Amino acid sequence: MKTSLQASTSILLLIDHQSNLFNGIMSHKPQYVKNNVLALAKGASILDIPVVLTAISPQTNGPMISEITKMFSDVSVIVRKHPSFNAFDEPEVVQAIKSTGRKQLVLTGLWTSMCMSFSAQEALQEGFEVFGVMDTSGSESVDAYNMAVQRMIGAGVIPCTWMQTVSEWMDNWLNPKAGDMFTQVYCPYSKGNPFFDRDMPEGTH
To answer: To the nearest 5 percent, what fractions of the chain are helix, strand and coil?
Structure first.
């Protein structure tokens, strides 16, 4: 199995990044998690990575955050009907993922200890190569987050960050979309990092 991501073989699953679920994040600052998942989503949108969006109990958990739905205005949010922490228990989610024919599943979700962890482990059983973007998720406590990450890694999930993920998708600065990635992803979502407070790297289109 491959250990590096390729844009041509990846699909992104965003599980339940809903407004009220952000309020329960205690492992990280919710704004940190939100910034990172938006960076991941924006990178996917620029690089044409297929995306599946899910929500659970929106009447209580709120809708998928509008920043994400606006990025993917042509993608309908799948409201999961099955009352499960595991997104793979929802046939519509499984069908949406499998219909792409892609086997590298990049995923994240709220909360890390529940929907993200359970779904990631099920995806492994379904035969996907699973990449968990750990800095785009949060949980109800630091311990809960750390144990969920350890459990996913132990099961075979490949851990990564949003910047690592979008960079592997882009591959190099000669990518025709590198300029858009630099100005629309790296710079706005890496505020405070002096590396991105400058002109684009040499060779960037």
So the answer is: 45, 15, 40
Is 33:22 a contact under the CB 8 Å cutoff? Answer: yes
Pair type for strands 104-109 and 10-15 = parallel
pLDDT in tens, 24-57: 999 999 999 999 999 999 999 999 999 999 999 9
Q: Do 59 and 83 touch, CB atoms closer than 8 A?
A: no
Structure tokens given for 167:
């960079």
Say what the pTM is.
0.94
Among 74, 148, 147, which residue's Cα sits nearest to residue 110?
A: 148
Which residues are known catalytic residues?
A: 115
CATH label of the domain that carries residue 43: 3.40.50.850
The SS3 assignment for 160 reads strand
Dihedral, 114, 117, 123, 129 alpha carbons, nearest 10: 160
Same domain, 202 and 147: no
How many structural domains is the chain composed of?
A: 2
